[in-house]
C-alpha cells in the first residue's frame, strides 16, 4: 500500500494530524477515534517524506502497543521502515543507559522488579525491628541498674510491623514519590496518611533501601527513568547524542504520563519534533502518579504547540456514545469532548440489576450462550471487570458452563512465583552478585532457610566470580549435586536462553513439585514451555531476563492463539485499545462506580468516572451493564472546594439513554443500606509541605527519592 492510499483512509482531522508541519503537536484523540491509525500514519508519512526511519522513536506504555505500531508501519512501507523504533518508556531509557554507560557511571547494573523491591523492604523492616528490640533491651537494662526504680506500668513499645506500612505499601509509596516527583513526606500524606506518625521510621527504611541498591548495583524501574531524565536535563553531551538519533518523538497515551516522564520529555522540546497523542478522558492511572497537566497544560509548557482534536468515533454506535458522553458531561471537569459515531445509530445500552453476584453471573453466562447459539462467535464478547478479584464469580460461571475464555489482567506469567523461582537460578548465572536472586534460589531447597541463605550470600559477595560461588555451594550448602552441576553448565551457556531454561527446569523440577504440591503444580509446570517460547526470541539470557523483568508478559498474551474463539474476561485497566462487538460491564453497583474507597476525594472520583468511561467506550454494537444489590443509593454531595462529588454514577441515568426500563427495585436477598456502607475515611487535606519540598537536584547526580 502506498502512503497516499494510507492517507486516503484517514478522515480530514486524522490526516491533518498525520501530516502536520508543526514542531510540536498534541492530538487530543477521543475513544475509538483512530489514535493508533493516526500514529501509524504519522510515522509512515515522515518516512515517506524522507526522514530516516531510525531517527523516529515511538514511545508507548506497553510492548504490545509498540510492536503493533511497528508492524503496521512495516506493512505499509516494507523495508523503508527498517530501523523504526517503538518501545516502552522503560525500554527506551534502558537502551540509553546501556548505550552510554560511562555517562551514568553505571557499569554492570541489574534491573530489579517489584517483587525484588518487596523482598528488600521486608528485609529492611526486619533489620529495623531488630535494632529497635536491641535498643529497647539496652534501655530496660539501664533502668533496672539505675538507682531509682519507679513502679510504673509501662506501655508496650509498638513493633515495627505495627507502625510501618506493609512492604508492598512501602514499595508503592516509594515509587509514587519518585514518579510524581514529590517529597516522601508529601507522598505519605497523599497515599498513606494514617502512617504519618511513622515518617521517621519510613524514611530510615527508604534510606536503607537506597543504600542497598547502590551497594548491589541494582536499578529499580523508577531509577531507569530517573537516571535518564535527570542526566538528559543536565548533561548536554548526552542530550546531543540522544537527540541526534531521535529527531522525531511520537508519544502514545500521553494522558498516562507522570511528572517523572514529563521530566524525561522536557529536554527534547526544541530539539526534537514532539508528537503526543492522548485522551484526557481516558486517564486512569492517577493512582500511580499520572498527571493530567501533561495534557491540560501542554500548550503552556510547549512553545508553539499545535493542539488538534479527533472526535469522530469509528468503534461504537451513537447510542453507546450518548451514554458515554452523558457520563462525562456530568463531570465538573471540562473534557471538551462529545464523541460522534461514524457508524451512526444502533441499539441502546441496557442496564440490568440483580439481587446478588450469583444471579448476575448466571445472567451473563446465559446471555452469552444465547448469542452463541444464534451464531455469534465467542470472541465477539468481552466482560469488563474492576479488578481480577471482582471477576471470580463470573469466571467460575464461565467454567461451569464450559464457555471458553481468556483472562487478561491477572498475574503476569513472569510474575508467577514458580516462574520467578526458575528465573532466579538463571539470574545468578548472569550476575553472581545478584543477592536477591541467590536468596530466592537458595531458599527453594529443603534445609536452607533465610539465615543460612543470607550467610552464604554474604560470602558470595566477597568472591571473584560465579565459579567460586559454586565451589562454596558445593562444599557448604544443601543444594543437591545435580543442581550444582546445572549451575556450572548454565554459567557457560549464556547465548541459548531456551536451552538454559531446559537445564534449569530439569534441575529444579523435583524440588518445585514438592514446593507447589498443593498449589496446582501440573498447570504451573506447563508455564515453562511458554517461557521457552518467549526466550527463543532473545539472543542472550541477559537480554531475555531484562526484557521480561521490565515488562512481564501476561499468561494469555503468550498462550493465546490468534484463531482461538474465546470470550475475553478483562480488567478495565488492561482494556485500553481493546474493542468487541458486545461488552458487559459487570458489577456496576453502588459502591463500585465510584469505588467506595475513592468517595471522599474529588480527583479520585473523577478518575473512577474515567474508568467507567473507558469500559463503556470498548463496545462496538452492544453495551450491557449489570449491577447488584441495588437498594438505596446516596446522591451527590459537595466537597470543601464546592465541587460536586457523585456517590453513584448511574443513580439517575436518563431512561431515554437505555433500552430497558430499569425501574429502581429493591432486591430480596442481601438487602443493603448504602448509607451504612460509606466508610468516608478522614483523609487529611492535600497540600505541599514546603519545608520538605527540596528542589535542589539540578546536578543530575542524585536519582533518589527526596526526603
Ligand atoms: N479513518 C478511519 N476509517 C475507518 N476506520 C477507522 C478510521 N480510523 C480508525 N478506524 C477504526 O476505528 C477503530 C478504533 O481505532 P483505534 O483503535 O486506533 O482507536 P483509538 O483511538 O486507539 O481508541 P481507544 O483510545 O478508545 O482505544 C479501529 O477499529 C480502527 O480501524
TrEMBL record:
Family: Belongs to the helicase family. UvrD subfamily.
Name recorded for this polypeptide: DNA 3'-5' helicase
Domain UvrD-like helicase C-terminal: 318-577
SUPFAM superfamilies: P-loop containing nucleoside triphosphate hydrolases
Molecular-function annotations in GO: helicase activity
Keyword entries, A-Z: ATP-binding, Helicase, Hydrolase, Isomerase, Nucleotide-binding
EC number: 5.6.2.4
A matching Pfam family: UvrD-helicase
Keyword Cell inner membrane among record annotations: no
Enzyme type, top EC level: isomerase
Domain of life of the source: Bacteria
Organism from which the protein derives: Enhydrobacter aerosaccus
Binding, ATP: 29-36
All residue ranges annotated as the UvrD-like helicase ATP-binding domain in the record: 8-317
Span list, region Disordered: 683-707
Comp. bias (Basic and acidic residues): 697-707
Reaction it catalyzes: Couples ATP hydrolysis with the unwinding of duplex DNA by translocating in the 3'-5' direction; ATP + H2O = ADP + phosphate + H(+)
Keyword NADP attributed: no
InterPro entries from the UniProt entry: DExx_box_DNA_helicase_dom_sf, DNA_helicase_UvrD-like_C, DNA_helicase_UvrD/REP, P-loop_NTPase, UvrD-like_ATP-bd
Amino acid at each position: 500500500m502506498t502512503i497516499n492510499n494510507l492517507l486516503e483512509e484517514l478522515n480530514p482531522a486524522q490526516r491533518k494530524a498525520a501530516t502536520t508541519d508543526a514542531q510540536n503537536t498534541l492530538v487530543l484523540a477521543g475513544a475509538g477515534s483512530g489514535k493508533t491509525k493516526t500514529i501509524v500514519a504519522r510515522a509512515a508519512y515522515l518516512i515517506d517524506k524522507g526522514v530516516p526511519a531510525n531517527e523516529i522513536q515511538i514511545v508507548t506504555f506497553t510492548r504490545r502497543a509498540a510492536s503493533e505500531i511497528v508492524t503496521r508501519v512495516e506493512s505499509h512501507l516494507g523495508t523503508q521502515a527498517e530501523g523504526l523504533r517503538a518501545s516502552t518508556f522503560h525500554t527506551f531509557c534502558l537502551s540509553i543507559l546501556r548505550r552510554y554507560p560511562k555517562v551514568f557511571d553505571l557499569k554492570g547494573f541489574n534491573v530489579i522488579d517489584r517483587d525484588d523491591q518487596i523482598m528488600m523492604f521486608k528485609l529492611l523492616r526486619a533489620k529495623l525491628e531488630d535494632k529497635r528490640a536491641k535498643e529497647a533491651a539496652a534501655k530496660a537494662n539501664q533502668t533496672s541498674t539505675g538507682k531509682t526504680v519507679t513502679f510504673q506500668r509501662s506501655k508496650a513499645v509498638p513493633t515495627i510491623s505495627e507502625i510501618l506500612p506493609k512492604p508492598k505499601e512501602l514499595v508503592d509509596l516509594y515509587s509514587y514519590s519518585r514518579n510524581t516527583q514529590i517529597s516522601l513526606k508529601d507522598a505519605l500524606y497523599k497515599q498513606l496518611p494514617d502512617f504519618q506518625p511513622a515518617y521517621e521510621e519510613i524514611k530510615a527504611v527508604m534510606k536503607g533501601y537506597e543504600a542497598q541498591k547502590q551497594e548491589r548495583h541494582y536499578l529499580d524501574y523508577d531509577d531507569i527513568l530517573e537516571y535518564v531524565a535527570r542526566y538528559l536535563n543536565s548533561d548536554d553531551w548526552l542530550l546531543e547524542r540522544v537527540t541526534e538519533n531521535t529527531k522525531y518523538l511520537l508519544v502514545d497515551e500521553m494522558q498516562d504520563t507522570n511528572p517523572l516522564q514529563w521530566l524525561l520529555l522536557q529536554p527534547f522540546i526544541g530539539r526534537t519534533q514532539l508528537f503526543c497523542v492522548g485522551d484526557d478522558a481516558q486517564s486512569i492511572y492517577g493512582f500511580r502518579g499520572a498527571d493530567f497537566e501533561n495534557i491540560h497544560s501542554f500548550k503552556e509548557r510547549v512553545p508553539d504547540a499545535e493542539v488538534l482534536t479527533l472526535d469522530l468515533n469509528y468503534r461504537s454506535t451513537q447510542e453507546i456514545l450518548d451514554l458515554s458522553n452523558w457520563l462525562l458531561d456530568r463531570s465538573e471537569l471540562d473534557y471538551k469532548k462529545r464523541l460522534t459515531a461514524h457508524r451512526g445509530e444502533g441499539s441502546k445500552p441496557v442496564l440490568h440489576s440483580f439481587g446478588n453476584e450469583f444471579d448476575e453471573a448466571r445472567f451473563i453466562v446465559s446471555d452469552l450462550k444465547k448469542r452463541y447459539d444464534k451464531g455469534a462467535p465467542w470472541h465477539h464478547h468481552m466482560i469488563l471487570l474492576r479488578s481480577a478479584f471482582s471477576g471470580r464469580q463470573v469466571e467460575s460461571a464461565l467454567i461451569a458452563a464450559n464457555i471458553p475464555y481468556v483472562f487478561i489482567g491477572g498475574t503476569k506469567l513472569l510474575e508467577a512465583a514458580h516462574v520467578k523461582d526458575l528465573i532466579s537460578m538463571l539470574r545468578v548465572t548472569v550476575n553472581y552478585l545478584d543477592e536477591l536472586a541467590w536468596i530466592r534460589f537458595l531458599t527453594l531447597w529443603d534445609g536452607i532457610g533465610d539465615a543460612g541463605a543470607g550467610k552464604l550470600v554474604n560470602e558470595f559477595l566477597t568472591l571473584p566470580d560465579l565459579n567460586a560461588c559454586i565451589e562454596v555451594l558445593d562444599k557448604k550448602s544443601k543444594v543437591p549435586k545435580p543442581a550444582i552441576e546445572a549451575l556450572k553448565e548454565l554459567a557457560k551457556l549464556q547465548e541459548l536462553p531456551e536451552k538454559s531454561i531446559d537445564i534449569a527446569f530439569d534441575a529444579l523440577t523435583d524440588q518445585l513439585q514438592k514446593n507447589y504440591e498443593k498449589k496446582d503444580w501440573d498447570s504451573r509446570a506447563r508455564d515453562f514451555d511458554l517461557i521457552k517460547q518467549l526466550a527463543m526470541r532473545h539472543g542472550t539470557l541477559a537480554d531475555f531476563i531484562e526484557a521480561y523483568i521490565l515488562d512481564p508478559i501476561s499468561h494469555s498474551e503468550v498462550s493465546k492463539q490468534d484463531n482461538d474463539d474465546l470470550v475475553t474476561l478483562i480488567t478495565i485497566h488492561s482494556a485500553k485499545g481493546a474493542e468487541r462487538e458486545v461488552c458487559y460491564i459487570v458489577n456496576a453497583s453502588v459502591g463500585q462506580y465510584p469505588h467506595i474507597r475513592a468517595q471522599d476525594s474529588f480527583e479520585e472520583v473523577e478518575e473512577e468516572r474515567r474508568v467507567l468511561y473507558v469500559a463503556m467506550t470498548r463496545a462496538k454494537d452492544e453495551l450491557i451493564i449489570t449491577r447488584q444489590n441495588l437498594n438505596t443509593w446516596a446522591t451527590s454531595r459537595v466537597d470543601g472546594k464546592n465541587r460536586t462529588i457523585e456517590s453513584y454514577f448511574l443513580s439517575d441515568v436518563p431512561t431515554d439513554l437505555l433500552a430497558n426500563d430499569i425501574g429502581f427495585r429493591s432486591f430480596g436477598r442481601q438487602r443493603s443500606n448504602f448509607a451504612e456502607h460509606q466508610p468516608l475515611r478522614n483523609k487529611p487535606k492535600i497540600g505541599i509541605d514546603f519545608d520538605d519540598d527540596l528542589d535542589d537536584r539540578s546536578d543530575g547526580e542524585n536519582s533518589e527519592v527526596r526526603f
